[in-house]
Design brief:
With 334 residues, the protein is of the alpha+beta class. It has two domains: 144 residues, 4-Layer Sandwich (Double-stranded beta-helix); 135 residues, Clavaminate synthase-like (Double-stranded beta-helix, 4-Layer Sandwich). 28% of the residues lie in helices and 27% in strands. It contains ten helices and 20 strands. Strand 11 and strand 12 form a beta hairpin. Helix 2 packs parallel to helix 4. It comes from Actinomadura rudentiformis. Its cofactor is Fe(2+). This is TauD/TfdA family dioxygenase.
Length: 334
């Protein structure tokens, strides 16, 4: 628990339906303010799962990167990305390139990797005119809202992510793995529990099974931790889904999710998952200069559709190993 002194110092706003929020007075030096308040901010995230900081006045990538580095233990280099990003500096990225009129549903960043961020950091340099919030949802609460039988199946079987890489939709092989060298890609896949198959046209297909429910590495709380709904075909806009099926075939979509035994995850299940997320969503529209910190294991996040220019910088920090989160299913190995 954070002390009453810390809560007062940070002017913490805990209104229902919004992430924990505080107003900062950085007096023109956001990096030094972040360094001085690092422990208090991280204590708020530990208690509430996320915090939105308003008043830092972040305005450029260099200053934002400096803030990220003062708040994190270490920044991560993204691997296995599903969409391309702009790289501002080491460990500092743009938000994924995703159509602005389409929802990016609730998910836990890189939850299909064997190591993933423990902390996500977002900074808004330019807010859209409409929409575009980075909303959050408490994963233990979402877990409790799901039918017990469905949770039990996912705990027993895990979830399966299938990907078919191409140069048209989503991240390419080079963007996802940081190399086009087949040997290096194969070595990475073998080391990270990813089945792979090269296609006659030179494309790559992969499969990886991961646990859908984990325990938080610090608190031990059970968390619904995955990207089952977000990367599933039934979360796509119907017109986009129809186009991709026509273009690539139902079994070769750029990405899709299944039950761990390979059975399809039906549209009814995806709807149920997204309804549980929505019922437990907290949101606050971005303002230019805002900063948000999110516990990536405890808290899912989304990006809502928007209109107008939107520039949000992202850092993935403080890596956590799946092996340290009491996984419930074995990783596919080859």
């Amino acid at each position: 628990m954070i002390s009453s002194f810390t809560a007062s110092l940070l002017d913490l706003d805990l209104r229902p339906g919004r992430p924990a929020m505080l107003r900062a007075e950085a007096t023109g030096d956001a990096p030094n303010w972040a360094a001085g308040h690092r422990d208090a901010l991280r204590a708020v995230v530990a208690e509430h799962g996320s915090v939105l900081v308003r008043g830092l006045g972040l305005s450029d990538a260099a200053e934002t990167g400096a803030v990220f580095r003062r708040l994190a233990t270490s920044l991560m280099v993204e691997k296995e990305s599903f969409a391309s990003r702009r790289i501002y500096s080491d460990g500092v990225y743009s938000a994924p390139k995703w159509p602005p009129n389409q929802q990016m549903c609730m998910h836990h960043e890189l939850s299909y990797r064997l190591d993933f961020p423990g902390l996500m950091m977002f900074a808004c340099l330019r807010a859209p005119t409409v929409g575009g919030a980075t909303a959050v949802a408490d994963s233990p609460t979402v877990l409790d809202a799901l039918p017990a039988a469905l949770v039990e199946r996912f705990e027993r079987e895990g979830w399966l992510l299938t990907r078919t890489y191409n140069d048209e939709i989503g991240a390419s092989v080079a963007e996802s793995f940081g190399t086009e060298d087949r040997g290096a890609v194969e070595s990475y896949c073998r080391a990270n529990g990813i089945e792979f198959e090269w296609q006659p046209d030179g494309g790559l297909r992969t499969r990886q099974r991961r646990s859908a429910v984990v325990r938080h590495p610090v608190t031990g709380r059970r968390c619904w931790f995955n990207q089952i709904a977000f990367l599933n075909e039934w979360t796509m806009d119907p017109e986009v889904h129809e186009f991709l099926v026509d273009a690539y075939g139902a079994d070769a979509l750029p990405f899709n999710t299944r039950f761990g035994n390979g059975d399809p995850v039906g549209e009814n299940v995806v709807d149920l998952l997204n309804q549980a997320y929505e019922a437990n969503t907290a949101r606050e529209p971005w303002q230019a200069g805002d900063l948000m910190l999110v516990d990536n294991v405890r808290t899912a996040h989304s990006r809502e559709p928007f209109e107008g220019p939107r520039e949000v910088l992202v850092a993935m920090a403080d890596p956590v190993r799946l092996a340290d989160c009491s996984p419930t299913t074995e990783v596919i190995s080859r």
